[in-house]
């Protein structure tokens, strides 16, 4: 299993793109602006998108991808997976004929470009030998983390979240975890803002990561632009026993 980081920043700007991870060639976990880095043939290979939540930085490329591949997708719709409330927001506020055409019924309701497929917290879906589990987490809107397992190896991505027990309990139910992508959006000086926005900062992340029974490689994502170095220093100071890596666009992991 290969995980390619297309975007992992908390914002945009030169060298920065928002969250999207390509699993092998056909699965996207989130489709922020980073997904726009894919070549046309790579976009055409995508068959499933797993969305963590409805915020724009995690879904921005979905409507653009649907429009770009309109002719190629009429016989093979892209399946967009997520919590039902997340999919409802996508349909109501993006694919509503005003912000963007409703590609869930175009070009024909029986042959749409996109199919929205609801997942419940704790549910599993298997795609060509890869098992994807959805885990409910705490954010300002309904949000999910995902754990992906294939060939006895596994990784998890927290999505946008803050202090919670559900994520760590779900990961602990499995015998192992090889790789973890987890956010720390703010520095500790912005603890009040992080709490209100329901994001991690290093202090909050350190408290929660102690709940994890596994010792995976840990990569920090969603860092606030311009404060990446500070956030990473604070993460390392708070978690000296962990080998932490700042996630960067273009990183590739093989499991």
Molecular structure report:
The chain is of the alpha/beta class. The protein has nine helices and 16 strands. Strands 8-5-4-3-2-1-16 form a seven-stranded mixed beta sheet. Strands 9-10-11-12-13-14-15 form a seven-stranded mixed beta sheet, with helices on one face. Strands 6-7 form a two-stranded antiparallel sheet. Strand 12, helix 6 and strand 13 (179-183) form a beta-alpha-beta unit. The mean pLDDT is 96.
Keywords:
single chain; 255 residues; alpha/beta; 7-stranded mixed β-sheet; 28% strand
Q: What gyration radius follows from the Cα positions, in whole Å?
A: 17 Å
Main-sheet strand order equals 8-5-4-3-2-1-16
Portion of residues in beta strands equals: 25-35%
Large-scale geometry: globular
User: Structural class of the secondary elements?
Assistant: alpha/beta
Mean pLDDT: 96
Which spans of ≥5 residues are poorly predicted at pLDDT below 50? none
Summarize the structure.
By secondary structure, this protein is of the alpha/beta class. 25% of the residues lie in helices and 28% in strands.
SSE topology sketch:
Layout: E1 2-7, E2 20-23, E3 27-29, H1 40-45, E4 48-50, H2 56-59, H3 61-68, H4 70-73, E5 78-82, H5 84-93, E6 107-108, E7 111-112, E8 114-118, E9 124-127, E10 130-137, E11 143-150, E12 153-157, H6 166-172, E13 179-183, H7 191-197, H8 202-209, E14 217-221, H9 228-238, E15 244-246, E16 252-254
Parallel strand pairs: 3-4, 4-5, 5-8, 12-13, 13-14, 14-15
Antiparallel strand pairs: 1-2, 1-16, 2-3, 6-7, 9-10, 10-11, 11-12
Helix pairs in contact: 8-9
């Amino acid at each position: 299993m290969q995980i390619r980081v297309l975007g992992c920043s908390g914002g945009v700007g030169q060298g920065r793109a928002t969250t999207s991870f390509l699993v092998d060639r056909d699965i996207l976990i989130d489709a922020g602006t980073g997904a726009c880095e894919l070549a046309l043939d790579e976009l055409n290979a995508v068959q499933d998108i797993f969305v963590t939540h409805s915020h724009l930085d995690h879904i921005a490329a979905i409507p653009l991808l649907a429009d770009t591949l309109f002719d190629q997708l009429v016989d093979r719709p892209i399946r967009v997976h997520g919590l039902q409330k997340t999919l409802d927001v996508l349909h109501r506020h993006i694919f509503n004929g005003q912000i963007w055409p409703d590609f869930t019924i175009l070009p024909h309701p029986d042959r749409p470009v996109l199919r929205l497929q609801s997942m419940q917290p704790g549910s599993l879906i298997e795609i060509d030998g890869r098992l994807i589990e959805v885990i409910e987490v705490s954010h300002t809107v309904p949000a999910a983390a995902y754990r992906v397992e294939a060939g006895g190896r596994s990784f998890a991505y927290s999505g946008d979240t803050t202090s919670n027990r559900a994520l760590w309990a779900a990961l602990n139910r499995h015998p192992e975890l090889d790789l973890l992508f987890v956010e720390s959006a703010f520095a500790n000086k912005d603890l009040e803002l992080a709490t209100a926005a329901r994001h991690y900062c290093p202090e909050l992340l350190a408290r929660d990561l102690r709940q994890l029974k596994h010792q995976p490689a840990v990569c920090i994502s969603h860092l606030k632009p311009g404060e990446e170095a500070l956030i990473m220093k604070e993460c390392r100071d708070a978690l000296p026993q962990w080998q932490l890596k700042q996630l960067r666009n273009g990183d590739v992991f093989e499991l």
